[in-house]
Every structure is written in structure tokens, then in C-alpha cells.
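Hey team,

Filing this mostly as a record. A colleague (T.K.) asked me to run one chain through the structure pipeline before their review meeting, and I want the input and output archived in the tracker in case anyone asks later how it was produced. No errors, nothing strange. Just documentation.

Input sequence:
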Amino acid sequence: MKRALELAFKGLGHVAPNPMVGCVIVHNNQIISEGYHEQYGSAHAEPNAIKQVSDELLKESTLYVTLEPCSHYGKTPPCADLIISKGIKKVVVGNLDTNPLVSGKGIQKLKDAGIEVEYGVLDKECRALNKRFFTFHEKKRPYVILKWAQTQDGFISQWPLPQDKEDNWITGKESKELVHQWRSQEQAILIGYNTLMNDNPLLTTRLASGKNPIRLLLSRTIDLPADLNIFNDDAKTIIFNPVKDDIKNNIEFVKIDWNKKAQETLDYCFKNNISSIIIEGGTNTIYNFMNINAWDEAQVFVNPTKKFEHGISAPEINLNNITLINVGNDLLYTILNS
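Output structure:
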């Protein structure tokens, strides 16, 4: 199961909103085949592993998979049916799939066919791997990551803004590259109007490999300069606003109740299969999601030597459930919402 988890992780950034799944097939205590879900819409982990083994050998083998085999037709046929058709005698499962379309039906289908099923193996590790998937189906919203950088004295920006934007940078090269890698792993990235106008960000993965996330903007006004970077063709951009619904090319305006902007943004994402968001600011935007307790983890970079002495204050957060690592010369605090 540990090996199946390693395989599953390779799907990060490629399979959402599907879960990451890994599968190994064992014969006489030896792994004879491996597979994982490689791309959204393509074959699942089980068929990728099964296709490499003869039918005769499969009948004498045990299949290990990190998540309950699916029992329904989606973009691919049910994996449970394939396992049954191959005569595999035993299946070992990490997690039950809490997607209502599965939710125990896959395991029951295997048992009804006379297959020995064991489940809950490395359950905690398998669940952590698919934190986005489980949050999406159980909380009916995307997995939400808050991210910001702050100085040693607790500011995310000088104010007024300095003429040279480089004077306002807080983190180093290594932190910037890591953030771009994170962007490639999540389905969407969200900012507010002030961050848009102050920074004019691209919100892309240009410092890392991988796809660009969908760009989400919270803006009370729709009167935005046409030359802003988020209006380029690098990714789809969705502007949540209190004024209008409209779609033009890769730009979509979505009208919401501005007094419920955080919740309605999350509701839209759930309805449109966006299973994870990284929120990059600013402080007021982050507080909108904190105030309704709709966040799962915070990634906070701190430059331990830089001070602004005045400016825009960083969000205040409960410093429980923290891990701390060094990223270049910066400190990175990871806080989980308990």
C-alpha cells in the first residue's frame, strides 16, 4: 500500500477533480505490476495495472489500491467490474470512497462476486493524499489553502506602495518557485480587487512546470482596465461580482450576493467541479474565508530579517497545528485548520 501511495502521488495536478489513486498487483509476495491514475478522463489506476498482467496470473494475485474501486460509469467503465471479470481473488483497499456515486458500492460489488476484500489499510495516509477530493465531497466545497508572505514585523505590503515594486518583495527566489509549483497542483487561484490593482499579477506557473490554475477574482466593480495581466490568454479568468453574468472568450463574469461572497464563490466552485483553491490575498479577501471558517490550511512565509515598520497588516491566525521548515532564507509555517 505504501508503494501504491507513492504511485498515486504522481497524479497530483493532473487528475482533479478526480482523486489520486495508485494500484499494485502482487503475486507470491512480489509486485508484478503497477499503475496509477495519470490524467483526468483517462484510465484509472486499476486498469493501468491490470493490463500488464496475463489473465492466468491475475487469478492467483492480490490487487492493492489506495481508494475503493469505482462502481459506476463515468468517463471510464467501473473498475470493480473489471476486477471481477479478471477473476482476482483478493483486493486490499486503503480508503472507502465517500463520493455518493461510490460510497461502499464498489466494495459491496466485489464481495457479492465472492472476492475477499480488506480495507482501511494505511487509511490515514490514503485520506491525507486525497484531502482535496474528500473535502470536496464531504463539505460540498473545494479544499481551501490560504497563502501569504509577511515581514518579521507582520506586514504583507508597504503602504503607500513604493515606486519600485522590488522594494515591496518579501520572499526569496526559492519561495517564489515553490508557490508556482503549488499553483500547478491546485485547480484555481483567487485574489481580491486590491491585490489585483496593486500588484497586477499574472497568477501563472511560469517559474515551475505544470498547468496554470483557473484565475478567480473577487471584485465589487466590473470597470477594470483591459490591459490587466489576468485578462491575457494564459488561463481562464472568473470574476465574481455583484453586477452581472457574462462570458467572453476566456473571461467569465459571475454575479453573486456581495454580502455572501466567500460562500457563493465556494458554492460556484463546487457546482463547477473546482475541487481546490489557493487564495493569495490580500488580507481582507483571506478574512472573508476565515470568517466563515471555510479554509483547510494556511501557508505563511515569513522573512525573518525584513521589516516594513508600517503598511498593510498580515492576517492574524491561530498558531496551532503548525509545522515549520526553511525555504531558502525564508521560514514557511504550515497551519492546519483543526
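Quick notes for T.K.: The radius of gyration is 23 Å. The chain is about 25% helix and 25% strand.
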